[in-house]
Amino acid sequence: MRSDRDDIKQGLKNRIGELCARLLPDGRQQGRFWVAHNPVTGDAIDHPKDPTFKVPLDGDAGAWVDYRSGDKGDVIRLIEYTQRLDFRQAMDWAREFLGLRAMTARQRVDFRAEQEARRAEAARAAEAKALEKRKAVLRLWDGAGSILDDTPAAALGRRYFEEGRGTPLDQIDNLDRVTFRVHPALEWWRGATWERRGGRLCKVAPGPKFPAVVSGFRSPTGVVTAVHCTFLDPVGPQKAPVKEAKLMFGEAAGSVIAVSCGPTGLPHDMASEPGPLVLCEGTEDGTTLALGIPEARVWAAGSLLHMGKAPVWLPCVSAVFVAADNDWKSRTAQRQLDQVLAEIASHGKPVEVMRSAIGKDFNDGMTE
């Protein structure tokens, strides 16, 4: 008997907005995502204003992730997880939701044909969207200038690191001179206003603009695949006065923000001589560690989960020192760290964890 799993999965994707409203009723649409608190972990109690459970409403619709707990899955797993069901029960729930049980044999044939057509169309649309996203990343990257340039924006970016974070870039040996750029007036896109018109989500007003440090995520071959943007106050070396002053855009998993090149002075896409690597989460920790450990290459992965995807298999890496934050104490964070360590160790290179003696992370010691 032919499995109806693929048809059910596509049917759920076609009604993803309605499905999210049913499964995550406390959430709401933000851009292309349905954003909610996690109904299983109950994180709304400790983080009432910071929901991190996100479900894409287009592209690979339903491929959800909770950035706090690390839980993730596809659209069927979304039903399993939120309703606390096993796979068989989740499929039964989905059939009921889609009305399959009430369909005649002819209607089921038509339903299957419709899902097949929609799958093909969704694949074409996803490919086109991914290409457009890559182009948008490069447009943003190309619109920023080097933080080492002699411009007011670059000077503000350098002041942010030196005065705001205590990590002067000009004192970092073998700083990767490609990584850090500054945009003089970048839209803080979280502040944009969106409306749904004719079934499509349209931007009706852009967000405010701020200077921004734009850090490039580079692939193992040196291609910029994503950017990390730290929005700055236009008049001082601190973050912009917005709720989320740090935003990422693009495909960061598997790429890294290369802070320093280590003793060889060569970027990772050109280096072959093995040496130690310090792998951390953010650029502030990265610049702090690069200042203190010039003997090592330093990469920032952008997030804890992405640390496990870093290309430590490259020949320029002999051993990996994972810089862990001291506030990764919850069961969830420890589970994620264990996962990262296992992923790194799978490449057959020595792995050790290092922690700051003070503060929540390594940069705290530079700013306290």
Structural notes for this entry:
By secondary structure, the protein is of the alpha+beta class. The protein folds into two domains: 120 residues, Alpha-Beta Complex (DNA Primase, Chain A); 225 residues, no CATH class. Helices cover 33% and strands 24% of the residues. The strands form four sheets. The chain has a five-stranded antiparallel sheet. Strand 3 and strand 4 form a beta hairpin. It is globular. It starts with a helix and ends with a helix.
Name the descriptors:
single chain; 368 residues; alpha+beta; DNA Primase, Chain A; 2 domains; five-stranded antiparallel beta sheet; 33% helix; 24% strand; DNA_primase_Znf_CHC2; TOPRIM_dom
Write the layout of secondary structure elements.
Elements: H1 5-14, H2 16-23, E1 28-30, E2 33-36, E3 53-56, E4 64-66, E5 72-73, H3 75-83, H4 87-98, H5 105-142, E6 145-146, H6 152-164, E7 180-187, E8 193-197, E9 200-205, E10 209-218, E11 224-231, E12 246-250, E13 257-260, E14 275-280, H7 283-292, E15 297-300, H8 304-307, E16 317-324, H9 331-345, E17 351-355, H10 364-367
Parallel strand pairs: 14-15, 14-16, 16-17
Antiparallel strand pairs: 1-2, 2-3, 3-4, 4-5, 6-7, 7-10, 8-9, 10-11, 11-12, 13-15
Helix pairs in contact: 1-4, 1-5, 3-4
Uncertain stretches: none
Strand percentage, roughly? 15-25%
Report the end-to-end length measured between terminal Cα atoms. 66 Å
Give the biggest beta sheet: 5 strands, antiparallel
Structural class comes to: alpha+beta
